[in-house]
Specification:
29% strand; 5-stranded antiparallel beta sheet; SH3 type barrels
Length: 357
């Protein structure tokens, strides 16, 4: 048996050790030779520059962003000049060759000064610019100017009273009359209540034996139920306008108990002839209103005469009094917030208020 056969394991271990030493040496030589190896040109067509293109501009941009930029204000003869957009100019309507500078030209729409249009950035170049409503609050530019409110803020507008429109008498308005009978020796008498319709039938009347005495409230049923109070009667001597003779006439005084007419007194001759019923008639009138502004357009509100109401109509504060109602106009009373004085405005049918001197 040969030595290799007898010592096979030893020979294998030795061979492995020699191989390991060889690989280690080869690796050392490669590391130490990297600079020299990379000097060998690399095959291919791509760029050899490894830096990012224009990367240096990033530093410049950061530096520029941190620097404060100041734009100098310009002023030409008292007129501020926007160096970025220029000065708004217009041409004359009748002469296109004439340029109009709003800062120096006379008012385009008197009495509104040109600077007002510039301040609110509104276009005065239309013939109806004063009548336009830039913020859609129901008030024209001219109305906003007169009231010193903002034409571009719908929450800042003139008084709502300015846009209160009297549409017409309400359907519930009626004409009525009281007709007293002959007074008894104790002052008691009967009453009939009429509302103007045809035929002439009383809506209320006292039954036989139910004459009303001074101090009594009457009637017992609708529509006049509990509305009237008989105060007193008196007999006076006066001239009859038809016969021109002196005669004695008895008058009764009736106090209205209705909420919006509480305390109003009617003086009626007793007895009252049937032919004179409507000569001495009274009215219960209500007015239909609309508020043509601030998003309330188209809403109708019925207000009885001598009743307080608010603006807008759902307001908790009732600052306005419907003082008088006629078929053609109404009167509204309120306290002027500037002067603290009571002021009355008249509103014609189909129109807005005018101040009453």
């Amino acid at each position: 048996m040969s030595w290799l056969e007898k010592n096979y394991e030893k020979a294998a271990v030795g061979g492995a050790a020699i191989a390991a030493l060889g690989f280690a040496a080869l690796g050392y030589l490669k590391v130490s030779g990297v600079p020299e190896d990379f000097n060998v040109p690399i095959a291919g067509s791509g760029p050899s520059e490894t830096a990012v293109k224009d990367a240096g501009l990033v530093t410049k941009a950061i530096s520029s962003n941190s620097r404060k930029l100041e734009v100098p204000e310009r002023d030409v003869e008292g007129q501020p000049v926007d160096i970025l957009t220029g000065v708004p100019l217009f041409i004359h309507r009748d002469n296109p060759n004439v340029i109009i500078n709003l800062y120096t030209a006379p008012p385009v729409h008197p009495p509104i000064p040109n600077k007002w249009w510039i301040e609110y950035r509104l276009d005065p170049g239309y013939a109806d610019s004063p009548q336009r409503d830039a913020d859609s609050d129901g008030y024209s530019n001219l109305e906003e100017f007169a009231a010193k409110t903002s034409p571009i803020d719908p929450k800042d507008h003139p008084s709502l009273l300015d846009k209160l429109k009297f549409i017409d008498l309400a359907a519930e308005s009626i004409e009525w009359s009281l007709r007293p009978g002959f007074a008894n020796t104790d002052g008691s008498l009967s009453f009939k209540y009429y509302e103007k319709d045809m035929p002439l039938n009383p809506k209320n009347k006292n039954q036989m034996g139910q004459d009303v005495k001074p101090g009594d409230v009457f009637f017992l049923t609708d529509p006049g139920k509990g509305r009237f109070k008989y105060l007193r009667n008196e007999t006076v001597e006066e001239e009859n306008p038809r016969t021109k003779t002196r005669e004695r006439v008895t008058y009764v005084e009736i106090e209205d108990q209705r909420a919006n007419k509480k305390g109003k007194i009617y003086r009626i001759p007793a007895p009252l002839q049937e032919s004179r019923i409507w000569d001495l008639s009274q009215h219960d009138r209500s007015a239909d209103f609309s508020l043509e502004a601030a998003g309330h357009e188209g809403k109708i509100q019925t207000v009885p005469e001598n009743t307080k109401f608010g603006l807008p109509f759902d307001s908790k504060e009732k600052n306005y009094l419907l003082k008088k109602v006629t078929p053609t106009q109404v009167e509204v009373e309120y306290t002027d917030p500037k002067t603290g004085e009571k002021t009355t405005v008249t509103i014609e049918k189909g129109s807005f208020p005018t101040k009453k001197p």
